[in-house]
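ping. complex inputs:
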Amino acid sequence: MRSSLGRYALWIGLAILFAALPHIFTSGTSLTKMSLMGIMIIFALSYNMLLGQTGMLSFGHAVYYGLAGFMVVHFINRASGGAWPVWLPFVPLIGGLTGLTFGIIFGWVSTTRAGTAFAMISLGLGELVAACSLILRGFFGGEEGITTNRTRLLRLFGYNFGPQVQVYYLIAAWCLICIAAMYAITRTPLGRMSNAVRENPERAQFVGYSTQMVRFLSFCLSGFFAGIAGALAAINFEIMNFLSVSAVQSGTVLLMTYIGGVGHFFGPILGAVLITWLQSSLSDLTGAWMLYFGLLFIFVIMFSPGGIAGWIMLHEPLARAGLLMRLLPAYLLIAVPVLIALAGIVGLIEFGHHYLVKGATDGTVVRVLGVALDTAGPWPWLISVGLLAAGLILGRRLWPVVTDAWNGASAELKRRISA
Amino acid sequence: MLELVIFSSLNGVLYGMLLFMLASGLTLIFSMMGVLNFAHASFYMLGAYFGFEISRRIGFWPGFVVAPLLVGAVGALVERYGLRQVHRHGHVAELLFTFGLAFVIEELVQMFWGKLPVDYRVPASLDFTAFTLFQTTYPAYRMFMLLVAVGMFVFLLAILTRTRVGLIIQAALTHPNTVAMLGHDVPRIFMMVFGVGSALAGLAGVIAGPALVTQPSMAALLGPILFVVVVVGGLGSLPGAFVASLLIGLIQTFAVAINLSLSDIFGSGGAAIFGDLWQATVAQLAPVIPYLLLVLILIFRPTGLMGTRET
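pong. complex structure:
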């Protein structure tokens, strides 16, 4: 009884959080950001059904997102003005079905293979659809895309979904439903078999399952949820263009999911929220934000292949045993050189960006903390390189402290378990 | 018509040879290390930009020599300090690493040289007409490109089949463990092959830069086509890569020159069912054809045209 209550408490808490967010962050821009986060959470989770759950690396996931978005735009345009009796909140289902349909068609083709071949087929299909999007102007609207008006469907309880806050709640509701549904799928036999196919396809076959069938079903379901995300995007932006089926969109969802962490269910949620936030916030602060994005991705691949979620869950056993506090001093200590090195890297990128991109028009002088620095001279560079070097050297010196603390806490944990 | 066929064949072979300069390195790297290098086209782009920067300051010919070497050095460093670290996390991580690297290289190129195409010119010594056929002139620079590509092909073939190093590389392709047991430093061979592959891509960039457009999106435009070439040819097969490069090069060039659509052949009746697809000319469909070929090959002949192993 208590455990089932605990299980529901998480979902109820999430629902309350979604409901409360617009009252905490009331500004228009944060409402837009949160709507986008909701869409991206669904999209990234659907991607992780492939990459994380079934071990299929896809380079063309935007196909299902984008095609569904286009279909929904056309659907709303046809149905608007009361031509068809539909309400906007149910329109994402149309997107989902579109994603599912294309998932069945393309999945039937591509899931016969696994591994690198699957990745290549998905890339080929993605490029195929992206190339078609510029040819089939009637459906994709060419370069400028196709617009729609979400308010022209039938009203539901008097809501016309014109204001952004109403759209936010629509997205939040669908987001909650999709998170719950996708989590539920991981607990079904199909979800478990997907994991088996990911870990060891040969043994999965010996147990009597068709690995191809498991991959196919995962692929179709993933297409369905990507379609819902695409539909919500169409409703949110009221425009769809060729970029939404492009390799850029496929790459973005891959980066989001991987940075968040593919090994745990909540990883892609973290990734979607963080990357969407970075995209909107960093792009205001610096012109080189895409570079930070790429470097972050490489950093995660090289040093934390489990992503952010993997790193957090590494601490879970220690947190349960109440040993997390033992790590805190070491982490605070290592944070100092990390921040110093980070400042050096940011300095190099920002000074470089200022000198190379803005230097020609705005002059080479940049103000940092009230000090004027000339990026044409040596000082900004010496300072940045110095900070980076100091951070790296200091970090190397202090690293044993962290490993000692970690080993100490782990040993304590082991002692408690065996005792 | 004859004029079209001759010039399209020439340009097709040229484009195909250019593709092969990249595809040969890519397929060698894949068969040795099992990594499909997403950043390979980025090395090609780096070659073009390095060549541009050097030709702007010193001249085209120094750039022709130095830029590929620089790109090769960058490639070797990437292998030594990037890929080798990621290797223990598995193939997916390696693939994603090169994917991220392509992303970062594109951003860096945009930062250093701007988002617009740069003015990378054909050197004055090669800026003349090679021959005139049917009142159409053919630039000498294109003949030079063809010459370089063919020269590189011969060079690569000679190294792989006639030298000891080539023998070791060939052995490492199929039996890396045995080669390691015979006392060869396999990681170093990997680094070397990666570096040479990158240098070849850089060389392709240096010579392609003035003829095509040197812009930050040139890697993203060529990269997917490159995968089509190596997969269609058969992963790990050099002759296959050669045939596929020429095939794709010719298909692309001829398709662009053909201005026929289905409605021209069968009348406008099908437009009601197929919409724009019925009206689209072969030239418009040209970008789609390689990917269609890729998907069909992967479904019906997974080993590629000349490959021996499944992808």
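The mean pLDDT of chain B is 81.
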